[in-house]
Design a protein that fits this description.
By secondary structure, the chain is of the alpha/beta class. About 40% of the residues lie in helices and about 20% in strands. Strands 3-2-1-4-5-7-6 form a seven-stranded mixed beta sheet, sandwiched between helices.
């Protein structure tokens, strides 16, 4: 669901720094050849992720849910000189495509891709995270959040995507309360009531929940 009038959305994108040629090609290839292209972060959200990363200059980023690699490339734009981004996805069918774009970006030394269940991979990564982006199976949002929070440095950030769930978090936008929507509502409330973080829900695209560890 688009929460902005289409003309306002177009205006916002027109007054946002454009995608690089590489991101534009990845965007197009995803829409042409990959199922569920709506999962791609896309231009506006991609620039938000890049801007957050550029403001933080993180040394260690964790991304849970790679898809075709668009958001990883955006997040990597702000990495510190010695920074590394770890990205996890369960879908090995997209691995060659993702690695191709990582290589084209010259980021093969900066982005480490892990194929497997995130719940199994996360404990193997002995890192302290500056920035975490959760964008995988929504039923596991709370699990991933709890798994990573202790490893996020004080002042570090966790971002979670799709927290507006096509508007279904608001009762008038859903015919009934289904299980998936209930899990998104529960996760949003979990973060909102967590005394360990400060939180902000941004109505960008399908919603980004920002949590800053105290």
């Amino acid at each position: 669901m688009d929460f902005l009038d289409p003309d306002l959305q177009a205006y916002a994108e027109a007054h946002t720094s454009p995608e690089s040629d590489l991101l534009r090609r990845l965007n197009r290839e995803t829409h042409l050849n990959v199922m569920k292209p709506r999962m791609l972060s896309g231009h506006l959200q991609g620039r938000v992720l890049a801007m957050v990363s550029q403001m933080m200059r993180p040394r260690r980023i964790l991304e849970i849910g790679t898809y075709t690699g668009y958001s990883a490339l955006c997040l990597a734009e702000g990495l510190a000189e010695d920074g590394v981004l770890h990205t996890i996805d369960v879908n090995d069918e997209l691995e060659d495509m993702v690695r191709s774009y990582i290589n084209q970006a010259g980021l093969e030394q900066k982005i480490q891709m892990h194929i497997g269940q995130a719940a199994n991979v996360i404990p193997t990564l002995e890192e302290t995270w500056d920035l975490v982006f959760i964008d995988a199976d929504k039923k596991s949002n709370a699990l991933y959040y709890e798994m990573v929070l202790d490893k996020v440095r004080p002042g570090g950030f966790i971002l979670a995507d799709n927290v507006l769930w096509s508007g279904k978090v608001v009762e008038k936008f859903r015919p009934k309360l289904d299980k998936d929507t209930e899990m998104v509502l529960d996760f949003n409330q979990l973060v909102h009531q967590d005394p360990r973080v400060e939180n902000l829900l941004l109505p960008i695209r399908d919603g980004i929940l920002v949590a800053r560890k105290k």
